[in-house]
Each structure stands twice: as structure tokens, then as C-alpha cells.
Design brief:
With 122 residues, this protein is mainly β. Helices cover 0% and strands 52% of the residues. It contains no helices and 11 strands. The protein is globular, with a radius of gyration of 13 Å. The model has no long low-confidence stretch (mean pLDDT 94).
């Protein structure tokens, strides 16, 4: 059974930066795609970024050019570097994983973390 634990969230002013981490344990996720999703109050969970087992990454249009996803396979850890943050980026951010290929679809991810809150003030 795999476990994903997010960290790094917090309160930041608009224009600032944060780096989220997702530590995986209980299984080796090296052959899995890993992704970040977010959910604001009253809204559905939405795709942010994902990286496949081969290192190919995909991004939501709303974060392209501002966010960067990366992974350290040796540490079994996923990262999300978030720059030029906007108030609309405020949400709970969730790490997720699925076998092999990165996709943008929430329901295709089998493993989920508990989330970390990101709040961007204007």
C-alpha cells in the first residue's frame, strides 16, 4: 500500500513563490506517473501538473510558465515549484499517482495524499 504526504503549503503574497513536496512511501513510485491537483472551496478538484515515469511533464494552461513539476526518484519525492502566485491559485493542493502515463484526469489517479493548503493574498 502506497502513501503520499504533501508539505510546503502556506500563506504567501501575490507574486511570491512556494515549493510543494510530496513524499512517497510504502512502495516504489519510479514506474508511476505523479501529479498535482488542487481544489478550492466550492469547486471541483482540477488538474495542475503531472510527470510521467519517463520524465515527460504536462501542465494546465492556467499554470504554464509559472509552475514547474519535478521528481527525485532516489528520494521518492515529487515537487511543485510555484512562482508568480496569484490569488486564484489559492486552494488545497493534492499529490496523486497512477501507473505509467501522466494524464489530466482526476479519476485516473489511484493514490492520493491528504493535501496541503496554499493561500495567496492580494
Amino acid at each position: 500500500q502506497g502513501q503520499l504526504v504533501e508539505s510546503g503549503g502556506g500563506l504567501v503574497q501575490a507574486g511570491g513563490s512556494l515549493r510543494l513536496s510530496c513524499a512517497a512511501s510504502g512502495r516504489t513510485f519510479s514506474s508511476y506517473a505523479m501529479g498535482w491537483f488542487r481544489q478550492a472551496p466550492g469547486k471541483e478538484r482540477e488538474f495542475v501538473a503531472a510527470i510521467s515515469w519517463s520524465g515527460r511533464s504536462i501542465y494546465a494552461d492556467s499554470v504554464t510558465g509559472r509552475f514547474a513539476i519535478s521528481r527525485d526518484i532516489a528520494k521518492n519525492t515529487l515537487y511543485l515549484q510555484m512562482n508568480s502566485l496569484k490569488p486564484e491559485d489559492t486552494a488545497g493542493y493534492y499529490c496523486a499517482s497512477r501507473p505509467m502515463r501522466a494524464t489530466m484526469t482526476v479519476d485516473e489517479y489511484a493514490y492520493w495524499g491528504q493535501g496541503t493548503q496554499v493561500t495567496v493574498s492580494s
